[in-house]
Amino acid sequence: MAGSRGAGRTAAPRVRQEKRRSEPEMEPEPEPEPPLLCTSPLSHSTGSDSGVSDSEESVFSGLEDSGSDSSEDDDEGDEEGKDGALDDEGQSGMEKTTEEQVQAGTPCPRTEMASAWIGDEYAEDSSDEEDIRNTVGNVPLEWYDDFPHVGYDLDGRRIYKPLRTRDELDQFLDKMDDPDYWRTVQDPMTGRDLRLTDEQVALVLRLQSGQFGDVGFNPYEPAVDFFSGDVMIHPVTSRPADKRSFIPSLVEKEKVSRMVHAIKMGWIQPRRPRDPTPSFYDLWAQEDPNAVLGRHKMHVPAPKLALPGHAESYNPPPEYLLSEEERLAWEQQEPGERKLSFLPRKFPSLRAVPAYGRFIQERFERCLDLYLCPRQRKMRVNVDPEDLIPKLPRPRDLQPFPTCQALVYRGHSNLVRCLSVSPGGQWLVSGSDDGSLRLWEVATARCVRTVSVGGVVKSVAWNPSPAVCLVAAAVEDSVLLLNPALGDRLVAGSTDQLLSAFVPPEEPPLQPARWLEASKEERQVGLRLRICHGKPVTQVTWHGRGDYLAVVLATQGHTQVLIHQLSRRRSQSPFRRSHGQVQRVAFHPARPFLLVASQRSVRLYHLLRQELTKKLMPNCKWVSSLAVHPAGDNVICGSYDSKLVWFDLDLSTKPYRMLRHHKKALRAVAFHPRYPLFASGSDDGSVIVCHGMVYNDLLQNPLLVPVKVLKGHALTRDLGVLDVIFHPTQPWVFSSGADGTIRLFT
């Protein structure tokens, strides 16, 4: 046995030196894993036997991971030499037979068993196929991330990573074309794609569903009762009893002596019985300094409840009983505003008094007050109340602004909804519910012309361009464009020429509105064009240059706002979807912006980029009106809940200032084109004029000072002022009301 081992040791280094000469790039490999079927001497001799064929080597490698280093083999050979004397004869005989069989070229019986065991694998694969089994051993594959190979095969050659140049498109095509794509996985040891067999797929599905891997395993087999419940004559085991079963334990004796010593020294204290009485105490009692609450420096005792008075009596004096009017007024008040939280009642006797309905609620509220109400002693600061009021300039220093009523324009028989002034300030146009448009001379309050339009006029707007004499009026579902022919005749004639110079295209484009020419009878009245929409029009407003006008329709969806171009007679809907019911629109005076006011917000759109720039949140229930400062950096909104909101676009999307000067709903707001003034008209019949100075210095906030309250309109059907507008050059303001009059304040 010793001789055979010595021969194995002397032959091994020579073969390894030849291998090193033939393959200089081979790297050292880790220790082999323990063999599965073949014996350990066979695994040591595989590295030194040159007579073993490739197929036999692959058989051995399929059962065990071979490929140990020469130094490790030498060490193992030394260890075997040391342990050789301890081996029995049978084992040495088997080693001799094994070595002789390997040198003679015949496999050992165990090898024959292994080859017979994996014969099915070789029935499928041809022996000429290259065996790319990775023999890298127990090494992390992250070590090969920066190298082109992923390990070594049985001959020590590198196993190169497959070239993966496929992108996601190739993977998608493989997924569509290859029916076995779902069962293909990548081998992390070689990087190749492997197709799972039906048995492997079934095994994975079983494991995923929480079942056992073996199909034949039944986890619910009936339990076998190995021990019966009957008392038997003979014991299960006749082993004699241990000595420790009848002799006291010395270890336990030592533990007990240690515990006794600790109790004597006082290190272990006996458990004291807990006091069963609950530890309640009066939270609001008068505490002494040694009590728990006395240590709080800023503790304030809870206020006592007010003692009941005569009103709480079951038989109160008659002056405490409420009359019918007082009871109705008490019921209409808010619960927080009532002086008494109950109605005093009189009963003939104490037996007739029913149970108090709010008893539990009042006790609960009192407990909440005691428990949750924070009490803290605050140091009072002596501040003069006059110092807290902001220092505003005197109104007489902010002149000029309108102070008194100068003229009343009478002639409409119903409420006057809208106003507009010509760019020169000489003429005024008004629209009413009596179905007429009236043109007035501003200086004399004389009605120059009356145009009957046959419907309620919701909105009028004079073209702001001084070179065009046009008035747009919103009547039912149409926008009427009229040439009033007032003022300069050359301007009126050039306006007609401009409208008649339009040549319609051969193929009319598809538009959301229809442009109709006026008939001869309508042209004599002054009507030039009619734009029909199919839905009621609520507002019309011009762009500053006078070629575009925006229209608001009373409909749902994205076609609530339309923009018309006068020169090309084109209409377009600028929005693809709706953000609520649109109330008002306005063009920015200097930049390509469109402001759209819905019920709860004001959106600022960039018309060239076609995107939303800002969204202003007025914190109002219902926005009613909108106006833009002539400089374009500030916006005011009026609302039906009697608020006027000022926005600074450079500052924030939230209100800079909220004014609550009116008592009823605001119907209209307006800026003066030249003076730092803005006005608001309300259903309380008043027009409030405010001074609103916007500074060029961006660090200085706007100065807002209310300067005058103008009254004159009579309330009709709970409606007051319906529209306000400033004169373009003078510090005058026009207002139209539900009483059918127009008033000029100067």
From TrEMBL:
First-listed, main subcellular location of the protein, grouped into a coarse class: nucleus
Keyword Plastid listed: no
Keywords attached to this entry: Nucleus, Repeat, Ribosome biogenesis, rRNA processing, WD repeat
Show the GO MF annotations: ribonucleoprotein complex binding
Query: What does the UniProt entry say about where the protein is found?
Result: Nucleus, Nucleolus; Nucleus, Nucleoplasm
Q: Where are the WD repeats?
A: 409-450, 659-689
Keyword rRNA processing on entry:
yes
Task: Classify the source by domain of life.
Answer: Eukaryota
Q: Name one Pfam family in it.
A: BOP1NT
**Gene3D superfamilies from the xrefs?**
YVTN repeat-like/Quinoprotein amine dehydrogenase
The segment(s) forming the BOP1 N-terminal domain are 144-402
Disordered: where is this region? Answer: 1-110
Q: Where is the composition biased (Low complexity)?
A: 43-65
Q: What Gene Ontology terms for biological process does this UniProt record contain? A: cell population proliferation; cleavage in ITS2 between 5.8S rRNA and LSU-rRNA of tricistronic rRNA transcript (SSU-rRNA, 5.8S rRNA, LSU-rRNA); regulation of cell cycle; regulation of signal transduction by p53 class mediator; ribosomal large subunit assembly
Annotated Acidic residues bias? 66-90
User: One cellular component GO annotation, for this chain's record?
Assistant: PeBoW complex
Q: Which PANTHER family does the UniProt entry name for this protein? A: RIBOSOME BIOGENESIS PROTEIN BOP1, RIBOSOME BIOGENESIS PROTEIN BOP1 BLOCK OF PROLIFERATION 1 PROTEIN
Give the UniProt family note.
Answer: Belongs to the WD repeat BOP1/ERB1 family.
Oligomer status and interactors: Component of the PeBoW complex, composed of BOP1, PES1 and WDR12. The complex is held together by BOP1, which interacts with PES1 via its N-terminal domain and with WDR12 via a high-affinity interaction between the seven-bladed beta-propeller domains of the 2 proteins. The NOP7 complex associates with the 66S pre-ribosome. The PeBoW complex associates with DDX27, BOP1 interacts directly with DDX27. Component of the PeBoW complex, composed of BOP1, PES1 and WDR12. Within the PeBoW complex BOP1 interacts directly with PES1 and WDR12. The PeBoW complex also associates with the 66S pre-ribosome.
Role description = Component of the PeBoW complex, which is required for maturation of 28S and 5.8S ribosomal RNAs and formation of the 60S ribosome.
Q: What is this protein called?
A: Ribosome biogenesis protein BOP1
Native source species: Pongo abelii (Sumatran orangutan)
Q: What is the lineage of its organism?
A: Eukaryota, Metazoa, Chordata, Craniata, Vertebrata
